Amino acid sequence: MSSRREQKEALRREREQREREAKAAQARKRMVGYGVAGILVIVVVVVLGLVALGGDDGGSVDAQVLPSGGSVPEQKQFDLTKAAAAAGCELKSVKASGSFDHTTDPNERVKYNSNPPTSGRHYVVPADDGAYTTAPTDEQLVHNLEHGRVIIWFQPSLPKATRADLKALFDDDSYQMLLVPRTKMPYRLASSAWNGTPAPAGKGRLLLCKQVTPGVWDALRAFRDENRSNGPEAIP
Q: pTM value?
């Protein structure tokens, strides 16, 4: 078990280094644009999209929705299947579609094949990584999933202490992560990812929790560690 913890710490240090090195490259990537529509068109879309969509990034979190002062126990179960079972959560795979298929209208809504979504057509500009108290659109967030991000979704009606613990879990390892409120889902907590295999579109992955049990923290961490950075369009 100690070797697993040491390996996890080593991977975390590597991720933190990659995150620092990737910030400038990620900004350049967004300026260059996405898809084949051309640089000028994409720049215009980016500007319009950011103005229209806005949203909270990790730097302006409403403390009423995601309070500080939470804590989570040290991870004991690293195997995802076992951790999900211990937490009473369901693991689910969903056929993926829409890889690299962008929409350019920020008002266009896409019907996804799961709730929360895992894959499909998505808006050309992804959201920033971070903790949110007002959710970006699904269309933006699915683009984050395509880039290998993992999203933790939570019911904003969860008890204050649970929301504080969620924020503590997120802050402990936020690389390529988003924490997003979602009222209209039949779960108290969920997490989603978009894996790039098998080709051509990969598959969506879901961790679905109808209750918040003591084992849910290990389940969320194990899901994060197994699925992060595995999107069909890997972006640091």
A: 0.79
